[in-house]
């Protein structure tokens, strides 16, 4: 395709690409902090009931006179005696002095602040009967991510990647800062939801804007660099949470830097490929010439003109005037098949991933240590994924990462509970595979969708991922039936989803498709007959619907197909 040649003409991977890619990726460093922030800001410290106001601890025999113990001998967290249970025994010698009756905590709780001086749990008493509110806060954040992926993905295809990124940086900075000063739980959840909306868009537009400015052979490097930046963010979160244990200060610390990102994002250059697909040739020329100057290719930039671009980008200009909406993902048969397959991959990856990483306290070791371990495993996992992506293809990498992750989780489900080292090792390996799967699916989705609907497709894929992250905590509740049930579900879903990868086309070494026809031409040899061209002089019912409903891009593509056949 001609656009890749234009990128090489104005410098390929030059100074502009190096600077802009770095600045666009930098905010991803703190994205990991926001996604799993509640592992620390909503940590549940050891707690027990506060004794009644009328209690006289010195007379009653101490605090334990009011607190029952569970079967393991630990103090109950949510119950206290109605009267102190110390003193001389009853005449029969079988009971302590008192009735032994208990009731829920009525005077609040006392928390162990040695590890976590302040969390949203301790500040708003999100324990016992209110324990579900803690998980609701994370679920509402994921709902925000879901809404943001849908809304901002569509806006990025309509308004451009740069404008939406600028808005998202500001929204993250403001909403994150306001959450740090939230006076109550409802206000906190509201601003966390808004943060989730903007952060979802940042992750999608970060990849898309960078990929659309890079030549074909460097796209895997960009995707892997973004993945490693996210991994470094996990290390950063562990360090920040250890150094700043107060939840309000930690929330503020990971939000304020987005004000700086907002300021320098005004200097980003919009995707020339997006300009071309929108039919805005004058802006395409201006962007390419500006990039040529930054890359020291002024002479090559001067050779570009409206006439040159009209000849080079004739297809984009004649078929890309309109922008497709999300509904086209279901109307067009080719896009519908692609959307359904990718949706399963996004859902399975996110579903299993958040099932593992949002339960750090369940491993029985230091949360800071397990956070570091979970980040460390990404380093070799993503390196192996990069090598497979770059040399064997996107499909083998995606299938292997999902399949191996599912197997690790399923094996973990049958390992005895007392084998903590084995269970933790399998969980860490599974998490590394799921992180690689995320790395691959982000890159693959950005490569396989046509330019005219790429960001919308990315947004819908991310939406399905957020559905998985919302459903994941609900599945963990099945542990009340049997402790291993959640792990069986978390493992079975990615194993089943890995099977749909055989239905997708390979994108290794392929130029980005600009039209649906480009996608169909690539898919036909991949499917080996599963997708066929219409017979000569006759269109199928699906193609008649495609001509009726799709934008002029697809109608033109179908006519060309009919003529070729």
From TrEMBL:
Main location per the UniProt record: membrane
Pfam families: Sugar_tr
SUPFAM superfamilies cross-referenced by the UniProt entry: MFS general substrate transporter (SSF103473)
Highest taxon above the source species: Eukaryota
Subcellular location: Endomembrane system
Membrane topology: Multi-pass membrane protein
Compositional bias segments (type: Polar residues): 555-565
GO molecular function per UniProt: alpha-ketoglutarate transmembrane transporter activity; prostaglandin transmembrane transporter activity; solute:inorganic anion antiporter activity; xenobiotic transmembrane transporter activity
Major facilitator superfamily (MFS) profile domain residues: 93-509
Example of a GO cellular component annotation carried by this entry: endomembrane system
Keywords: Membrane, Transmembrane, Transmembrane helix
Segments for region (Disordered): 525-565
Family statement: Belongs to the major facilitator (TC 2.A.1) superfamily. Organic cation transporter (TC 2.A.1.19) family.
Record protein name field: Solute carrier family 22 member 6
Organism for this UniProt entry: Prolemur simus
């Amino acid at each position: 395709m001609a656009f890749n040649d234009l990128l090489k003409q104005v410098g390929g991977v030059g100074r502009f690409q190096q600077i802009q890619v770095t600045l666009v990726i930098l905010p991803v460093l703190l994205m990991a902090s926001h996604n799993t922030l509640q592992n620390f800001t909503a940590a549940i410290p050891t707690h027990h009931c506060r004794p009644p106001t009328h209690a006289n601890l010195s007379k009653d025999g101490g605090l334990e006179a009011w607190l029952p113990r569970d079967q393991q001998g630990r103090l109950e967290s949510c119950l206290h005696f109605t009267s102190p249970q110390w003193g001389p025994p009853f005449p029969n010698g079988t009971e302590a002095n008192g009735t032994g009756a208990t009731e829920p905590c009525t005077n609040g709780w006392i928390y162990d602040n040695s590890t976590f001086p302040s969390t949203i749990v301790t500040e708003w008493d999100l324990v016992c009967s209110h324990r579900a509110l803690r998980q609701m806060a994370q679920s509402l954040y994921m709902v925000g991510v879901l809404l943001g992926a849908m809304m901002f993905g569509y806006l990025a295809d309509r308004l451009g990647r740069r404008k939406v990124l600028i808005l998202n940086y500001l929204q993250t900075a403001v909403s994150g800062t306001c959450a740090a000063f939230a006076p109550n739980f409802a206000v906190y959840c509201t601003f966390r939801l808004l943060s989730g909306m903007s952060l979802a868009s940042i992750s999608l537009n970060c990849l898309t804007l960078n990929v659309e400015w890079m030549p074909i052979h460097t796209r895997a490097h960009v995707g892997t660099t973004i993945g490693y930046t996210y991994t470094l963010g996990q290390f950063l979160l562990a360090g920040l949470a250890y150094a700043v244990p107060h939840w309000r200060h930690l929330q503020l610390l990971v939000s304020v830097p987005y004000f700086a990102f907002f300021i320098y994002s005004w200097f980003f250059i919009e995707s020339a490929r997006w300009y071309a697909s929108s039919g805005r040739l004058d802006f395409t020329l201006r962007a390419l010439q500006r990039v040529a100057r930054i890359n020291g290719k002024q002479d090559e930039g001067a050779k570009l003109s409206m006439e040159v671009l009209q000849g080079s980008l004739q297809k984009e200009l004649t078929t890309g005037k309109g922008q497709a909406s999300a509904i086209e993902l279901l109307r067009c048969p080719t896009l519908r098949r692609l959307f359904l397959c990718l949706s399963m991959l996004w859902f399975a990856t996110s579903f299993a991933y958040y099932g593992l990483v949002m339960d750090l306290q369940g491993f029985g070791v230091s949360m800071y240590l397990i956070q570091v371990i979970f980040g460390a495993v990404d380093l070799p996992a993503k390196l192996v994924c990069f090598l497979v992506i770059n040399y064997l293809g996107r499909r083998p990498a995606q299938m292997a990462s999902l399949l191996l992750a599912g197997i690790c989780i399923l094996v973990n489900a049958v390992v005895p509970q007392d084998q903590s080292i084995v269970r933790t090792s399998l969980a860490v390996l599974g998490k590394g595979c799921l992180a690689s799967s995320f790395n691959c699916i982000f890159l693959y989705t950005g490569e396989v969708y046509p330019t005219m609907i790429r960001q919308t497709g990315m947004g819908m894929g991310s939406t399905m991922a957020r559905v998985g992250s919302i459903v994941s905590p609900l599945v963990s509740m099945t542990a009340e039936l049997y402790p291993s049930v959640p792990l069986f579900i978390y493992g079975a879903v990615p194993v089943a989803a890995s099977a749909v990868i055989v239905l997708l086309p390979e994108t290794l070494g392929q130029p980005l498709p600009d039209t649906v026809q480009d996608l169909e031409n690539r898919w036909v040899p991949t499917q080996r007959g599963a997708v066929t061209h219409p017979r000569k002089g006759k269109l199928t019912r699906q193609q008649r619907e495609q001509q009726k409903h799709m934008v002029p891009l697809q109608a033109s593509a179908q006519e060309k197909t009919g003529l070729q056949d």
